[in-house]
Amino acid sequence: MKENKILKLIHVAWRERWSDSQFGINIKNVLPRGVSGDVYNLADCILQQALIGSTANPLVLNYLKHSLCAHLVSHAAVLRRIAKYEHFERLYCTTSLLDFLDSVIAGATCRTKTEEAILPGAVVSLINWLMQVFAMITAHYEIHRELNSEQSYMLGQCCLVIEKVIKNQFLMATIYVGCHEDPDYYGQIRERYAAIKTSLTNSNFSPTHPSIETYLHQLAYVDVHHLDMPLLDIQPKPEPVNYCVQPLLTVDVLLNPCNDTSYYVAKMQMVQRLKKFSNTRLFYEIVRAGFVSLSNVMETTHDTMWGAFTFFKVPQIIKQLQALNRAVGEQTLNDYIPEVVEAIELLLEDKLLLDFMDSKCSCNIIEYLLNDWTKQHLVNDMHVKHFAAQREGTSVLLQKRDASAQAPSIINFIIRAEVPLSGVLKTLSTDYNKVQEALLGVLCQVLVGNSFDLILSVATVEGRLKTFVSRLIQCNENSKQVPGEMGKASIIRSTLFDVSFLMLTFIVQTYGSDAVLSNNGDSFFEKWVRECMVERNKPKNPRSMIVMCDENMVDELLLNLSKPEPQLKNINITWQDICLNLPGVLYQVLIAWEKETLSSGDVKNILDNIKRRLFSFSVCATSFLCAYMCSVKENELLKPLNMIQQFLAPPSAEEMSSQENIKERLGLSFQIIRKMQHDVRPTVNPKSRSITLVQNLVSQTPLMDQFRDVWRTVNENGWLPIRAAQILESLLHAGGAAWLTTRLLEEILKCKYIHDMMKTMDIVFAILHLDIELSTEALLTQVVPAMIQNRQGEDIDEPHLHVLARLCVYCIISAVETRHYRNFSYQKKRSRSHDGDDMDLNSTVKMRKINTDSSDNSSSNDFLGDSNLFNAHASTHLRNTPNQLKESLQNSIQYIFKIFQQFLQTDKLSLKVYFVYQFVSLLVECGQERVRLVLNLLPTNLINNLLKVMLTDQISVGLIARLYDLRTSCGRQSAVADLTLWRNLKLKEQSIHL
Known about the structure:
This is Mediator of RNA polymerase II transcription subunit 24. This protein is mostly helical and 994 residues long. Among the domains are: 226 residues, no CATH class; 150 residues; 144 residues.
């Protein structure tokens, strides 16, 4: 009914030649108040009357333009109606529509929610229509080889409209949203573009507009990169020194030494994306980080660990990174990687570091490193000679040094440790009953000097530590006491039980049971670890240990141990049962000593008898005593402490000569006992190597003083020493994530210059990886909101806010990706059979010889497959975004977004509002699609409110388009709503300037 009235009104307006304003006044009498003309197809009615003849009616078209200006009809409805016009043979009508579009397209926008819903589809339809016009003209030229004046003019106007669409960021963003709305329809546009391209090629036709082919391609393949997005990069030049890679690797090697290569690859890829490093720069930073860390370590364990990491793990990290970053179809050279060569060139500029490393390792470190890399095809012999020549002067100086003054090169020991490791694993895999005596000799030889540290380091880096542990557990199981066995066989069996138990305990102490043991292992040792062994940060309940004990066995042991010369071998209790029942024995001894039923001499006799037969008994007893000390008052610690000291008393010369291989076992047991004691009651000046491995939670120094001391060291060096990382880890456990994160952020706020802020932020970001998920949650829920709200304007302003926002974004990205990769690694490990880790070493060696690309020094599962295997199997998991967030992390992100909403409850631009903008913008800039789950948590009106406060020059359509998941209807609706608000605010600013 209304449409008929509108059509009649248009007829009257045409007959009486009404002006635009007259038409506008009268049409409002037809349309109900507050109702858009779109409801009654006003645009369709006007265009229907304007395009009746062979030429368009200019007066009626003017009515349509006036209706647009008066908001009587929407741009979406007009564009959608024009896109339906198919009478291209009417050249003048088509040309008039192009002229009309040329005059109105720049002002296209939306005013209501209804218009927002149809605008993306309307603009995409218009693009299809423009492609049809262009295709019609090019097809005509292809056939007739000429264009008349009307066709030439039409082509020119079509190009002008396309150019205006391309240069209108709002329209391009709307097209980008629209192409996700109906992918099949957008596919037709691409097909039409392909036909146009074919016609242009076949006819050799070159449109007068110089860039039209580029514009057509952009419209057919519209991408988010076509949308402007200013980057918040306060460092326009590449940073000369990176302070993130070395601390990050230090933390990872400290916490996760057993992780396979792909774990480190994922971390380095994350840094590469955040820092926008080239492969060359990333490889340089990784090698430099290994050298810097190796130059600092003093303890043998970490010396060998970092040496093994640098020489065994780093080449594999580089190979996998290069494989993942290689473009599809890109050819690789056979004998070297160009980026590695360029990275070594950069490394040679750091002469002080290389000179120090040459002196420390007693060799030309570059030449030594590259000689091994030639086998792995990272460099070739020509490169080795070239780089060795550049370091020739230093090599000469090294040769002139007094040979006696040169310490043996730790690198030589590390490289050589791979052969004994393979030998030990091979011996452990042989039939136990056939090689007991030989196996005992091999294991005891491993304990001589620092061989055990070297072998553990190489096994850890090469991914063979779990294989080593599983075979030692099997050896320990096979060595359990057999009732009735006597003589030499019994002695060998007991010594094997003792050695394997001590070695396993030391490994668990060093790496943690979670890293080396299976969750549900049913062996004796695994059961003892779960129920009786005191581990750092894993306290055990001494009462539970006592409850497990068998009363009859405890009584028999007490009776036997109380004798001056006990004969444990004659009692009916096996070694493994003694280990499990010693807590009951010691508890009874402690009670009796407290009640003075036993004298100090009696207690000493019992303790001496415990440690006389097997040193494993001393370790088991100490584990209970340490657990007991954690559960009693301060004034009750003296007696258990004295008991532990008795286990550390050296045996007599007669006892030392009474057993074979006693020296090695004794030394290892002392290390284990001191470490257990230190974890509970650290000594003031620890001298033992085993004690200094880990900083304990218990300390007489206030946490703040410890933090100041360690941060002073880190800040002065510009990198993270191993010892500093250990102390910071202890501070994290002692003070909590919120406390440590607050202290670290305070150090950022103390900086006055941008360079110092960014340097400190990089180091802090790496340190937070001590527990990145917990630290990120504390950062978002406790630390940053409190700082922004309570200290704004005091010492937190620009550029501090920018650095804080960047740190928050880095941590969120890392927490999301770390959880994703851990889940993948866990699934991958769960999918492997236990036997798969224990593959035959002979087969391994054969595979390394056969595989031309795997002549590396590794024989682990992680290294056997070449880069292509890794690329095919794991790269998809590394590149894909995670499908869910950890609940606590999701709650933390939602919490800070709610804080942001509170900041935006104003119409004034403040530092808080600007922080929100920087946070959101950096999240998109640094995370891109990898933080899609985080962006999906944005409140619906957050960006809308931000737009009303911020300037539209700072918030771009590129940012808005990247914020939402356009694959969902909700995401598209939110994107169009924000884009429309941005557009209208932009038009308002332009009208004010006019």
